[in-house]
UniProtKB/TrEMBL annotation:
E.C. number(s) listed in UniProt: 2.7.13.3
Keywords: ATP-binding, Kinase, Membrane, Nucleotide-binding, Phosphoprotein, Transferase, Transmembrane, Transmembrane helix, Two-component regulatory system
SUPFAM superfamilies, per the entry: ATPase domain of HSP90 chaperone/DNA topoisomerase II/histidine kinase
Record-given protein name: histidine kinase
Superkingdom per UniProt: Bacteria
Coiled coil: none
Annotated catalysed reactions: ATP + protein L-histidine = ADP + protein N-phospho-L-histidine
MF GO annotations: ATP binding; phosphorelay sensor kinase activity; protein dimerization activity
Pfam family, one: HisKA_3
InterPro entries referenced in this protein's UniProt entry, alphabetically: HATPase_C_sf, Sensor_HK_TwoCompSys, Sig_transdc_His_kin_sub3_dim/P
Membrane-spanning residues: 20-42, 54-70, 77-107, 119-139, 146-164
CDD domains in UniProt: HATPase_UhpB-NarQ-NarX-like
Length: 445
């Protein structure tokens, strides 16, 4: 199919759009032939002869030139007609004008016809080229006459074939070069499109990375600030709820100060990392994990929450992303239980089952109607601490690792259950811990 297309393209380039050139060529041959006949220049058969033969040559020449006008539309037909006229002319001495027309017709046919027709044409030329010198030799002609017959065959038959083959080859090569240049231009255009697509994809990836980083920062800020501020609010509420007591109030103020200092330390560590300060590389930048669960439980109990914990985790160490997410989920769940619960004991269970880490925090509901609406903020707490941001951040952390988180009423209790996969994919980035380096794109935005 590709060869047919290439041949069609070559023939289209070889054929002129109109017949004016062919008519001009035929008229030129007619004029030259008439001049040759008029001046007595004869063909290879000898002198033209008398006036009768002269008009025969002129008539055959006119017919041959008329047929030559159609040489590009029907090259083989025109070649057959001209060949017959040339042979007829040869019987009465021959005409150089007709030989020129024959030369052109043979050249055009060899140039324009298909591969099979060219093979047939070449076979005929070879057969005539061998037969003519052989016949001359068999007829007892001299060596010079044999050589002369051979040269005539080469001049009349071989030369136009060779010339047509050379022109055709050059045209095909030019067509191949043209198509290759077109292909290279198309490939260059396609490469530019691909480059533009790659730039757009990179920009989309960068924007998505920035959004993900900002969401992770929002979760970290919420976890760091909300839990500490909830403890501060609870201690302040306890101190203000009763009658003035210097010892109790001092204890509450000490707890408030401890929570405030801890919150400031964590925020300072996060800000140093985000700003890329030299002090960001230190113990304060290490992401919290379940190895600091005892500190978290102690802080919750110091805030007045009766936490009853059961931890059953065999795998040590856990993947950093899972370890940090589990710590933050426990921290937020305990802070929510302290802020919204009825004040009773809070049950915490952390266990590893079937390559999954399960976290369950259960606390009592303050009122029965909270089973449908969820726990309400405890009186006296700031409104910002009573929003659903904590549940959102916990859910996002679990989902970012391929886990799940469910929160809802379970009878008279409020139950938060998170399931995290212990084994993460090798290419998983996970949720950024406070101590992890931020994306460069975030600073650029």
């Amino acid at each position: 199919m590709g060869a047919v297309t290439a041949s069609t393209a070559v023939l289209r380039r070889l054929r002129p759009s109109g017949g004016l050139g062919d008519r001009g060529t035929a008229a030129l041959y007619l004029v030259v032939g008439l001049v040759l006949v008029g001046t007595g220049v004869h063909g290879p058969g000898g002198p033209v002869g008398g006036p009768a033969r002269t008009w025969v040559h002129i008539g055959l020449l006119v017919l041959a030139c008329t047929a030559l006008v159609l040489k590009r539309r029907a090259p083989m037909v025109v070649l057959g007609v001209v060949t017959a006229l040339a042979l007829a002319s040869g019987t009465v001495g021959g005409s150089l004008g007709l030989l020129l027309v024959f030369f052109d017709a043979l050249y055009t046919a060899a140039l324009l016809v298909g591969r099979r027709a060219r093979a047939v044409l070449t076979s005929l030329v070879v057969a005539v080229g061998v037969a003519a010198p052989t016949a001359t030799l068999v007829a007892g002609q001299s060596a010079s006459q044999v050589v002369g017959a051979t040269l005539q065959v080469v001049a009349l038959l071989v030369t136009p074939l060779w010339w047509a083959s050379d022109v055709r080859t050059r045209t095909e090569l030019a067509d191949v070069e043209s198509r290759r240049a077109d292909l290279e231009r198309e490939q260059a255009a396609l490469a530019r499109v691909h480059a533009a697509d790659a730039v757009r994809i990179a920009e989309l990836d960068r924007a998505a990375a920035v959004r993900e980083e900002r969401a992770a920062m929002a979760r970290d800020l919420h976890d760091v600030v909300a839990g500490r501020l909830s403890a501060i609010a609870i201690h302040a509420e306890a101190a203000l709820a009763g009658t003035p007591d210097a010892t109790r109030d001092r204890t509450a103020l000490a707890a408030v100060r401890e929570q405030a200092v801890a919150s400031l330390d964590e925020m300072r560590s996060m800000i140093l990392v985000l700003r890329g300060a030299p002090g960001a590389t230190g113990p304060t930048t290490a992401p919290a994990g379940l190895d600091r669960l005892d500190e978290l439980l102690a802080a919750a109990r110091a805030a007045g929450t009766d936490v009853r914990a059961r931890v059953d985790v065999d795998r040590r160490p856990l993947p950093a992303a899972v370890d940090h997410a589990a710590y933050r989920i426990v921290q937020e769940a305990l802070a929510n239980a302290a802020s919204h619960g009825a004040g009773g004991p809070v049950a915490l269970e952390v266990a590893e089952r079937d390559a999954r880490l399960e976290i369950v925090v259960t606390s009592a509901l303050a009122r029965a109607d909270e089973a449908a609406t969820g726990p309400a903020p405890r009186p006296g707490l700031a409104p910002s601490l009573g929003t659903a941001t904590g549940l959102v951040t916990m859910t996002e952390r679990a989902r970012s690792l391929g886990g799940t988180l469910d929160a809802g009423a379970d009878g008279p209790t409020w139950r938060v259950r998170a399931v995290l996969p212990v084994a993460l994919p090798a290419d998983h980035v996970g949720d950024r811990a406070p101590g992890a380096a931020p994306l460069d794109t975030l600073e650029a935005s």
